[in-house]
Structure formats: structure tokens, C-alpha cells
């Protein structure tokens, strides 16, 4: 349950930040280079879909179609997050998941998802000009996972280079590792 519980807390944090989004905010820039908030939400929705595929049917293909509603990406993300939580909570016997043909444990998949959802949840708040730090307990659990999930091969395409954290709170350290300035 550790990976699922971590993913659940990450989703709850991100969902809380979605309440900040107003229609004019969708054009705001995000900490993700070259993405506005609408594009970030579409990416987050696609990530949630991939995590859902990991439990139902137990394999993730890397080129799945996007089914987002361009007029309301916030609702799309909320619906996908709810569906995902329900699927993982009710999953039985899915110890291994196939990602592009490679087997991974469900704990690795849900923990990786927690990193992605948490950081993009923070990105949503930042794009809305709100200070919503990552909860310290969530960040403390995710921080040691981040170097396992985000490697130098992921930079600069998926994540920016790390920035100095100044030894701040765990959430600030996590964000700095992922190339964001808290």
C-alpha cells in the first residue's frame, strides 16, 4: 500500500491546487519551459491516464491517445484522478506492470507517479501565482525517490537541471532537484 498511499497523497495535493485555476489562468506560463497551464494540465491528464493503464489492463503503451476536453482541462484532470485512485485502490494481484514491454513493480509505478503528480501539482499553483508548498511529509517521502526516477538522461528534455536549494524545507529541496525555483 505504500506506493498507492503515496500516490493518493500526491493526487490530493494536486487536486487541492486545481481549485485555484480560473479560465484566464490557462494561458499563464508554468515552471515547465514552453508550457502554459493548459498544456501542463493536458500533460498531467495524460500522465494520470498512463497510471490508470498500469492497473487496468496492467500495461502502459507509450503512444496512447489523449482524450482531454480542450475546453475544460481542469475537469478532465479531476475525473482522471478520481478514476485512477479508484482503480489502484481496488487493484488486486497486480504486482508487476508492463511499461513499454518492460516489467516494473506496482510500487515503482505508483511511486514514480507520485513524483510526477506532486511536482505538477506545485506547477499548477505556481502558474496561478499561489504559494502552496508541497506538504513536508509528502516531500520527505518523495525526495529520496526523485534521483531514482529522474536521471541525467531526463535532463534537459523532461526536467531542467537542478538548482541550488539552500537546504530549505523538503518540498523546496525536491523542487530544486527537479529544476524549479521554489
From TrEMBL:
Which terms does the record give in the GO molecular function aspect?
A: metal ion binding
Q: Where is the Mycothiol-dependent maleylpyruvate isomerase metal-binding domain?
A: 16-125
Q: Which Pfam families match?
A: MDMPI_N (PF11716)
The domain of life is Bacteria
Q: What is this protein called?
A: Uncharacterized protein (TIGR03086 family)
